[in-house]
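Journal club side-thread
Mid-discussion, someone asked how the predicted structure for our own chain would compare to the paper's figures. Pasting it here so we can look after the session.
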Amino acid sequence: MKDLRQELRTKEMLVSMGIYALLVIVVFGVALSFARPGADFLEVSGGLLWALVVFTSLLGLNRSFSHETENGCLEGLLLAPLDRGVVFLAKATSNLAFLAIVEVIAVPLYWVFFSSFAAPAASAPLIVVPLLLGSVGIAGIGTLLSTITASTRGKDVMLALLFVPVVFPLLYACVSATTAALAGGVLMEEAFATSLALAAGYDVVMLLASWVLYDFVVS
């Protein structure tokens, strides 16, 4: 709640993440400006969308512990008579809320930019499910890793080096499910269900591991 109240006053993280998402969309637009419109765009649109989500989330995760480390608040927070898992859940929830707000703005904007390339299938609204599962996993794993790198030199680079390999199975599953929903087709239901099962399994295992390990990490 502290992070949410502070963000409502300053709006630093949401504004920076929103502007960064817009800049990534513009870069994608320039890169694809000479591509031919057609259904082939739907084959890569899921990957581009998740690249946008991952890059934007890294910016937010890098800033999630900035106030605690700069002002020495992390030590005071850890002295509170609370289980360290509660601190993890609270921080992960706030990171998830920030990422969800940015996605609500950025995903429609993404399709406004690229709607001329190809029309998505009727199953396109189902991308909400992989976006939700992926965001939960990114917020949970990202909170643990941002805690590890918060006090290191070059924390921006260190977080990216740790985050991308660890989150790769989740990213692969979510890209597959998103692409299946956007492209549709005969094999859509099978690919979509299998990818969602993989993403959900990853979330359960990694969130439990992060919750258990958080006490050791912050200590």
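Post-session note: The chain is about 80% helix and 0% strand.
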